[in-house]
Amino acid sequence: MTFNRRIFLGTAAATASLLAAPMVRAQGKPRVVVIGGGAGGATAARYIAKDSQGAIDVTLVEPTRTYYTCFFSNLYLGGFRDMGSLGHSYGTLAADYGINVIHDWAVGVDRDAKTVTLAGGSSLPYDRLILSPGIDFVDGAVEGWDVSAQNAMPHAYRGGSQTELLKAQVMAMPQGGTFAMVAPPNPYRCPPGPYERISMVAHTLREINPTAKILIADPKESFSKQPLFEEGWNDKYAGMIERIGPDFGGANVSVDPQAMTLTIDGDVNDVDVCNVIPAMKAGRIAEIAGITDGNWAPVNAADMSSKMDENIHVLGDAAAQGDMPKSGFSANSQAKVCANAVRGALTGSTVFPARFANTCWSLIDTDDGVKVGATYEATDEKIAKVDGFVSATGESDELRAATYQESIGWYDGIIADMFG
Predict the structure, then answer these.
(1) Position with higher pLDDT, 283 vs 20
(2) Where are the alpha helices (DSSP H) in 102-225?
(3) What's the first-to-final CA gap in the chain, in angstroms?
(4) How many Å apart are CA 413 and CA 5, to the nearest integer?
């Protein structure tokens, strides 16, 4: 095997095991390898396997055996879901759809040879490769913080243990203490997510620690659903939440995880919990594959194929695709377009024109749900917004409760769509 700029091996041990390991090949069928088992990757793998009826060999590479959704994890922080309800396994994809599910890390892509290298040493050949790796964090994005500090100051922007840690820290806050958030700059996963999180933390603190304060350092001039969140915060959590935007130093912050301080434009604040959500970029494997431009991976809107390699497709958070937000709904929608295009390319089946949709629901308080969404079409330049909608301020309690119930139905539906 030739090692060049398109292949990366994490360790010398991985190199040694790779050289000793045989190729894993399926005979006589086109091969699709999907990296990442979230809303994009799991959906794409399932649709390709289901709709090709066994004509395509599908392998899904995902390191975790139980996938915890990042979407709806804020509701765990607010006490509206338990962690078990957010965890899902891959057994049905393997048993009912014949997908070869491999729990390992993808550490290399050789675009010339069309192979993926796994940390365990195996090499997977592909005819088409689908990358849906989610996000990583930009090094140095928040002064004083890196991933080594995530246990002291959690990001909780991947589902699972980080979310549990942040919840435990909130529950252990002293009476009258301070919860702080460093909000991320655009673009980032789930634009309303940090502000739903603030709502859910406020909901919990109102019940167990009503004199606590919440401080947000935000580098952005504005944020998704801002009038809706601010209306809710004023009505439900009056006096608890303070947001400092860029005009007052919200873009000039640093943290000290040992001292538990957040410094905003030179003003040092002692805090009891600090949720640091740094700037984001495409998951590392996209960079390793050599298909990123800056922090994200540019794609063609019609089929989500990489603009740098027609045999690689990129879904969800990692893709630079145009107007769609980075969300679980978006990733699921893009996966269906990609699956149809990949199946057509490999088997000659009908490929339908690309259409996309997204909705993002947020919970502000009990039965107080709001949403924003849009439909999109593929153009030569990008995925372009066609029309959109957003909840209005001042809506009735009945409408807000119905919106929340709608979100629960969507969650159940997307999980079935992803995992079968």
Answers:
(1) 283
(2) 161-171, 193-208
(3) 37
(4) 41
Task: Look up the pTM and report it.
Answer: 0.92
Contact 37, 90 (CB under 8 A): yes
With 60 as the cut, is the pLDDT of residue 21 above it?
no
273-276/178-182 β-pairing: parallel
Query: Could you check whether the bond before residue 353 is cis, i.e. omega within 30 degrees of 0?
Result: no
* Residue 245 DSSP class: -
92-124: pLDDT as tens digits? 999 999 999 999 999 999 999 999 999 999 999
